[in-house]
């Protein structure tokens, strides 16, 4: 190998190639072992040299491939660091032309990279700020140092953002002027907005501090360090220096009106605000002219530039305190008035919570005031928690005055009426709650019931006299018809029967029969002797039997009528059912009628139902005339009962009567 070195010289200065040469020589020894002993010597040497060079080239190729892989890896790292950096990078010429930029920069400028290459960076800067960008670019190329500039960037879609541009020139070999610079773009829109908001907040705070209607002071270590105009007016100061620098004890009496020492109270309030961060209390002091003041003071711990201060708000409550005292006196008077009232008085707020409860209400309910104040009336008296009661409560809150009667209470038996009126505030249009005035009406109701009973007895006596008179007159008329007209007609009939038969005779006899039948019917209706002889049950059955089947079909159900009823009540029931039958036959145009007369103990129920044409009850009540339904209603009223009529046009009629049996 050493003998043939001159034929294939290698570069002795290249250590890498020399190393490759040595590796090739070591491989050649392995290769020459494959030639036989009979190969010519010259051919053998040439082949060996060629094999060494081939191996050397292969090793160089391997090294180049490794170098290429490393270069590709470094290039990928560069691309990752450059293109995918969170900061925008671009390369500019002195005239601002973009020659290179990364992905983030193209995103910030709102376009793809291919469209941005070759464009002027200045077109994205508003016209009003382009001179600042030009100065920035000139400084980069002239100074050779890193330059910074904040610019507003305006994109093609008319959106904008604020960017901080950091530029640095690209250095070239000595003697050559720079031709490019690199610029990094940072989006500082949020930072600019935060700075602007901070400045606005500071300005707003200063404005609030200076123009606040309340007196505002800043205190450090019990010394006033700043105050606003309202604080100066409240303290009676002409200049800010009259207050700034003063201690909190200035113009404060040694003792507060409650006898406590002011110095000790100041220390106490200071400890509370340090522990809780905020504290509110009332304070008595004088202004600079010696005028006494009551102040509501609110203290708040704040930190300004690392310094701990107390933000104090003074509010003049001198007049409010005087009004409060006046109100307290009025409240004591009102409470005295309430407690001495003979009625129970309860006040409720808009949610139904009890706000006032006088002594009489305690006696009515058996509940002390302390047990009910602040609680819901529905929790104290669950029986009032019904939809109807809540509806009444809402009606009063809307301005109505409502009287509720017969309210039961817990411990005191009797009957009570409640007068519910809206509670109005200082503004007459606003309603703040409900006032309930509860009155014991047990004695009043007893007297009313007694008066009603006496009146009812008188009405019943009058009714009895009227009915007896009517029945006596009817009986007299019936006897006259029967004994007079009836006998005469019967005699006429007998006379005509004895005469010769002819058409006139037959017609006369038919007319006389009809007259006799009608006379008997009138006599029966005028005085139902069957009622006196056989009782109400048989008389009602006979009344139904006398109704012609061709005109209407009647069904009757009678229960509990085996025992006789008072004579007046039986007669009234008979006459009312008789009148109802007549009305149904004449006006209802019904095919069927169902009658139920049922006695249960001291109560008698009557129900008459037909399937006729019906009528409008409301309209009928407004135009009641004659002796039909009005007469029935009067009879029921005199007997102390109730009458109910349920009817609609085309759907029949149901008449229900409830009568007491005495």
Automatic annotation (TrEMBL):
Enzyme class: transferase
Keyword Acetylation: no
Keyword vocabulary terms for this entry: Kinase, Transferase, Two-component regulatory system
Region listing for Disordered, in residue ranges: 1-23
PANTHER family named among the record's database cross-references: NITRATE/NITRITE SENSOR PROTEIN NARX-RELATED (PTHR24421), NITRATE_NITRITE SENSOR PROTEIN NARQ (PTHR24421:SF10)
Reactions accelerated catalytically: ATP + protein L-histidine = ADP + protein N-phospho-L-histidine
Domain (PAS): residue spans on this chain: 330-400
Listed EC numbers: 2.7.13.3
Upper taxonomic lineage: Bacteria, Pseudomonadati, Bacteroidota, Cytophagia, Cytophagales
InterPro entries to which the protein is assigned, alphabetical: HATPase_C_sf, HATPase_dom, His_kinase_dom, PAS, PAS-like_dom_sf, PAS_4, Sensor_HK_TwoCompSys, Sig_transdc_His_kin-like_C
Protein name (Swiss-Prot/TrEMBL): histidine kinase
Domain called Histidine kinase: residue spans: 476-662
Gene Ontology terms describing biological process: phosphorelay signal transduction system
GO molecular function, one term: protein histidine kinase activity
Cited SUPFAM superfamilies: ATPase domain of HSP90 chaperone/DNA topoisomerase II/histidine kinase, PYP-like sensor domain (PAS domain)
Leader sequence segment: none
Pfam families in UniProt: HATPase_c, PAS_4, PAS_9
């Amino acid at each position: 190998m050493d003998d043939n070195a001159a034929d294939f010289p290698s570069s002795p200065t290249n250590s890498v190639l020399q190393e490759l040469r040595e590796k090739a020589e070591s491989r050649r020894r392995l290769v020459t072992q494959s030639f036989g002993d009979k190969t010519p010597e010259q051919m053998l040497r040439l082949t060996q040299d060629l094999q060494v060079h081939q191996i050397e080239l292969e090793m160089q190729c391997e090294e180049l491939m490794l170098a290429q892989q490393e270069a590709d890896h470094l290039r990928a790292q560069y691309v990752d660091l450059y293109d995918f950096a969170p900061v925008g990078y671009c390369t500019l010429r002195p005239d601002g032309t973009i020659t290179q930029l990364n992905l983030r920069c193209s995103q910030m400028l709102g376009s793809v990279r291919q469209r941005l290459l070759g464009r002027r960076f200045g077109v994205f800067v508003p016209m009003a700020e382009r001179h600042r960008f030009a100065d920035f670019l000139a400084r980069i190329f002239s100074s050779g140092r890193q330059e910074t500039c904040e610019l507003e960037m305006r994109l093609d879609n008319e959106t904008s953002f604020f960017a901080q541009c950091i530029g640095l020139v690209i250095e070239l070999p000595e003697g050559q002027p720079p031709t490019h610079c690199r610029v990094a773009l940072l989006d500082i829109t949020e930072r600019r907005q935060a700075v602007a908001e901070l400045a606005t907040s500071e300005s707003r705070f200063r404005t609030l501090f200076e123009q606040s209607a309340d007196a505002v002071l800043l205190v450090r270590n019990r010394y006033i360090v700043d105050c606003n105009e309202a604080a100066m007016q409240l303290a009676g100061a002409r200049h800010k220096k009259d207050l700034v620098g003063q201690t909190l004890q200035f113009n404060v009496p040694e003792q507060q009106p409650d006898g406590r020492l002011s110095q000790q109270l100041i220390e106490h309030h200071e400890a509370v605000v340090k522990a809780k961060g905020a504290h509110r209390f009332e304070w008595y002091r004088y202004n600079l002219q010696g005028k006494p003041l009551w102040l509501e003071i609110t203290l708040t711990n704040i930190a300004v530039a690392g310094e701990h201060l107390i933000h104090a708000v003074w509010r003049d409550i001198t007049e409010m305190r005087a009004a409060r005292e006046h109100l307290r006196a009025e409240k004591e008077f009102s409470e005295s008035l309430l407690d001495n009232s003979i009625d129970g008085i309860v006040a409720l707020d808009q949610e139904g919570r009890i706000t006032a409860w006088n002594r009489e209400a305690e006696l009515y309910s058996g509940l002390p005031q302390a047990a009910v104040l602040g609680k819901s009336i529905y929790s104290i008296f669950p029986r009032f928690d019904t939809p109807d009661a809540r509806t009444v409560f809402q009606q009063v809150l809307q301005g109505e005055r409502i009287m509720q009667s017969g309210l039961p209470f817990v411990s005191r038996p009797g009957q009570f009426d409640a007068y519910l009126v809206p509670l109005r505030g200082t503004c007459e249009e606003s309603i703040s709650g409900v006032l309930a005035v509860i009155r014991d009406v047990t004695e009043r109701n007893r007297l009313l019931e007694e008066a009603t009973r006496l009146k009812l007895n008188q009405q019943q006596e009058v009714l009895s006299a009227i009915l007896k008179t009517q029945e006596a007159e009817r009986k007299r008329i019936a006897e006259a018809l029967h004994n007079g007209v009836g006998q005469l007609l019967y005699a006429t009939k007998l006379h005509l029967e004895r005469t010769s038969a002819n058409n006139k005779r037959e017609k006369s006899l038919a007319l006389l029969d009809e007259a006799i039948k009608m006379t008997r019917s009138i006599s029966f209706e005028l005085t139902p002797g069957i009622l006196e002889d056989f009782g109400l049950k048989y008389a009602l059955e006979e009344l139904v039997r006398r109704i012609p089947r061709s005109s209407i079909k009647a069904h009757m159900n009678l229960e509990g009528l085996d025992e006789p009823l008072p004579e007046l009540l039986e007669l009234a029931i008979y006459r009312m059912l008789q009148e109802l039958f007549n009305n149904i036959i004449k006006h209802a145009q019904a095919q069927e009628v169902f009658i139920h007369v049922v006695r249960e103990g001291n109560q008698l129920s009557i129900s008459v139902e037909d399937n006729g044409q019906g009528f409008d009850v409301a309209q009928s009540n407004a135009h009641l005339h004659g002796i039909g339904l009005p007469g029935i209603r009067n009879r029921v009223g005199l007997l102390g009962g109730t009458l109910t009529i349920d009817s609609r046009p085309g759907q029949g009629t149901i008449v229900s009567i409830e009568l007491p049996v005495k």
